[in-house]
Protein backbone atom coordinates (compact mmCIF):
# COMPACT_ATOMS: atom_id res chain seq x y z
CA UNK A 1 0.00 0.00 0.00
CA UNK A 2 1.27 3.48 -0.85
CA UNK A 3 0.14 6.46 1.17
CA UNK A 4 0.13 9.97 -0.35
CA UNK A 5 -1.52 11.80 2.51
CA UNK A 6 -3.59 10.57 5.38
CA UNK A 7 -6.49 10.64 2.93
CA UNK A 8 -5.12 8.95 -0.24
CA UNK A 9 -3.71 5.44 -0.44
CA UNK A 10 -3.16 2.76 -3.07
CA UNK A 11 -4.32 -0.81 -2.45
CA UNK A 12 -5.24 -3.99 -4.28
CA UNK A 13 -8.81 -3.98 -5.56
CA UNK A 14 -11.32 -6.56 -4.36
CA UNK A 15 -14.56 -7.90 -5.76
CA UNK A 16 -16.36 -5.52 -3.36
CA UNK A 17 -14.97 -2.65 -5.47
CA UNK A 18 -16.65 -3.87 -8.65
CA UNK A 19 -19.50 -1.32 -8.72
CA UNK A 20 -17.08 1.58 -8.31
CA UNK A 21 -14.76 0.06 -10.91
CA UNK A 22 -17.62 -0.27 -13.40
CA UNK A 23 -18.42 3.42 -12.90
CA UNK A 24 -14.79 4.38 -13.45
CA UNK A 25 -14.66 2.17 -16.53
CA UNK A 26 -17.37 4.38 -18.01
CA UNK A 27 -15.31 7.44 -17.07
CA UNK A 28 -12.43 5.92 -19.09
CA UNK A 29 -14.77 5.33 -22.03
CA UNK A 30 -15.98 8.95 -21.91
CA UNK A 31 -12.41 10.27 -21.59
CA UNK A 32 -11.39 8.29 -24.68
CA UNK A 33 -14.44 9.12 -26.80
CA UNK A 34 -12.89 12.39 -28.15
CA UNK A 35 -9.99 10.31 -29.51
CA UNK A 36 -12.20 7.71 -31.22
CA UNK A 37 -15.69 8.55 -32.47
CA UNK A 38 -16.41 4.86 -33.12
CA UNK A 39 -16.52 3.81 -29.47
CA UNK A 40 -19.93 2.23 -28.82
CA UNK A 41 -22.35 4.10 -26.60
CA UNK A 42 -22.56 1.04 -24.33
CA UNK A 43 -18.86 0.12 -24.45
CA UNK A 44 -17.24 -2.05 -21.80
CA UNK A 45 -13.48 -2.46 -21.97
CA UNK A 46 -12.55 -4.76 -19.10
CA UNK A 47 -13.52 -8.21 -17.85
CA UNK A 48 -13.46 -7.18 -14.21
CA UNK A 49 -14.81 -10.51 -12.97
CA UNK A 50 -11.72 -12.20 -14.40
CA UNK A 51 -9.18 -9.47 -13.62
CA UNK A 52 -10.16 -9.37 -9.95
CA UNK A 53 -9.60 -13.11 -9.40
CA UNK A 54 -6.99 -14.01 -12.04
CA UNK A 55 -3.65 -15.04 -10.52
CA UNK A 56 -1.94 -13.49 -13.56
CA UNK A 57 -3.51 -10.08 -13.00
CA UNK A 58 -3.52 -7.40 -10.35
CA UNK A 59 -5.97 -4.51 -10.14
CA UNK A 60 -5.13 -1.62 -7.85
CA UNK A 61 -7.07 1.44 -6.80
CA UNK A 62 -6.28 4.72 -5.11
CA UNK A 63 -8.78 5.72 -2.45
CA UNK A 64 -9.60 9.11 -0.99
CA UNK A 65 -11.85 9.14 2.07
CA UNK A 66 -13.29 5.75 1.09
CA UNK A 67 -13.93 6.68 -2.55
CA UNK A 68 -11.98 5.10 -5.39
CA UNK A 69 -10.37 7.92 -7.38
CA UNK A 70 -7.84 6.09 -9.56
CA UNK A 71 -7.35 2.65 -11.06
CA UNK A 72 -5.01 0.45 -13.03
CA UNK A 73 -4.26 -3.18 -13.72
CA UNK A 74 -1.43 -5.33 -14.95
CA UNK A 75 -2.06 -8.65 -16.66
CA UNK A 76 0.69 -11.12 -17.48
CA UNK A 77 0.32 -12.07 -21.14
CA UNK A 78 2.14 -14.21 -23.69
CA UNK A 79 4.44 -12.12 -25.86
CA UNK A 80 4.78 -12.39 -29.61
CA UNK A 81 6.97 -15.29 -30.64
CA UNK A 82 9.37 -12.92 -32.40
CA UNK A 83 10.30 -11.10 -29.17
CA UNK A 84 13.12 -12.01 -26.79
CA UNK A 85 10.76 -12.17 -23.79
CA UNK A 86 8.13 -14.89 -23.60
CA UNK A 87 5.75 -12.95 -21.33
CA UNK A 88 5.07 -9.31 -20.60
CA UNK A 89 2.90 -7.18 -18.37
CA UNK A 90 0.05 -5.40 -20.09
CA UNK A 91 -1.09 -2.27 -18.25
CA UNK A 92 -4.67 -1.08 -18.62
CA UNK A 93 -7.56 0.75 -16.95
CA UNK A 94 -5.21 3.63 -16.20
CA UNK A 95 -7.51 6.34 -14.88
CA UNK A 96 -7.32 9.17 -12.35
CA UNK A 97 -10.39 11.26 -11.51
CA UNK A 98 -9.90 14.77 -12.92
CA UNK A 99 -9.84 16.54 -9.55
CA UNK A 100 -6.92 14.34 -8.39
CA UNK A 101 -4.71 14.60 -11.47
CA UNK A 102 -1.26 16.11 -11.13
CA UNK A 103 -0.49 14.29 -7.86
CA UNK A 104 1.53 11.42 -9.42
CA UNK A 105 -1.24 8.91 -8.64
CA UNK A 106 -0.93 7.27 -12.05
CA UNK A 107 2.82 6.97 -11.56
CA UNK A 108 2.35 5.37 -8.14
CA UNK A 109 -0.23 2.92 -9.49
CA UNK A 110 2.03 1.87 -12.36
CA UNK A 111 4.99 1.43 -10.00
CA UNK A 112 2.81 -0.68 -7.70
CA UNK A 113 1.69 -2.86 -10.62
CA UNK A 114 5.25 -3.30 -11.86
CA UNK A 115 6.40 -4.20 -8.35
CA UNK A 116 3.72 -6.91 -8.27
CA UNK A 117 4.76 -8.34 -11.66
CA UNK A 118 8.55 -8.18 -11.39
CA UNK A 119 8.91 -11.04 -8.83
CA UNK A 120 6.94 -13.14 -11.32
CA UNK A 121 9.72 -12.63 -13.88
CA UNK A 122 8.08 -9.78 -15.78
CA UNK A 123 10.30 -6.86 -16.74
CA UNK A 124 8.75 -5.81 -20.06
CA UNK A 125 5.57 -3.75 -19.86
CA UNK A 126 3.23 -2.50 -22.56
CA UNK A 127 0.18 -0.26 -22.64
CA UNK A 128 -2.05 1.37 -25.23
CA UNK A 129 -2.57 5.11 -25.47
CA UNK A 130 -4.27 7.22 -28.11
CA UNK A 131 -1.76 9.03 -30.31
CA UNK A 132 -3.46 12.39 -29.66
CA UNK A 133 -3.57 11.94 -25.87
CA UNK A 134 -0.40 13.92 -25.25
CA UNK A 135 -1.01 14.34 -21.51
CA UNK A 136 -1.09 10.56 -21.02
CA UNK A 137 1.90 10.04 -23.31
CA UNK A 138 3.91 12.56 -21.29
CA UNK A 139 2.98 10.83 -18.03
CA UNK A 140 4.04 7.42 -19.37
CA UNK A 141 7.30 8.79 -20.77
CA UNK A 142 8.20 10.09 -17.29
CA UNK A 143 8.15 6.44 -16.21
CA UNK A 144 10.45 5.38 -19.06
CA UNK A 145 7.86 4.22 -21.60
CA UNK A 146 8.75 4.84 -25.23
CA UNK A 147 6.56 4.74 -28.33
CA UNK A 148 6.63 1.29 -29.89
CA UNK A 149 4.09 0.00 -32.39
CA UNK A 150 1.64 2.49 -33.86
CA UNK A 151 -1.78 1.09 -34.79
CA UNK A 152 -3.36 2.78 -37.80
CA UNK A 153 -6.97 2.63 -38.99
CA UNK A 154 -9.21 3.69 -41.82
CA UNK A 155 -13.00 3.58 -42.15
CA UNK A 156 -14.15 3.12 -45.75
CA UNK A 157 -17.90 3.34 -44.99
CA UNK A 158 -19.53 6.35 -46.60
From TrEMBL:
SUPFAM superfamilies: Acyl-CoA N-acyltransferases (Nat) (SSF55729). Residues 8-158 form the N-acetyltransferase domain. It comes from the Bacteria. Gene3D superfamilies: 3.40.630.30. Pfam families: Acetyltransf_1. Transmembrane segments: none annotated. CDD domains: NAT_SF (cd04301). One of its GO terms (molecular function) is acyltransferase activity, transferring groups other than amino-acyl groups. InterPro entries: Acyl_CoA_acyltransferase, GNAT_dom. PANTHER family: N-ACETYLTRANSFERASE. This is N-acetyltransferase domain-containing protein.
Amino acid sequence: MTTFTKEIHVRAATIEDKTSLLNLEQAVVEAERPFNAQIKTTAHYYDLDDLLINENAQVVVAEHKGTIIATGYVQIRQSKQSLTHSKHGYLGFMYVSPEFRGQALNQSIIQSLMAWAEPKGICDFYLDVYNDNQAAINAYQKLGFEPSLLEMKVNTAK
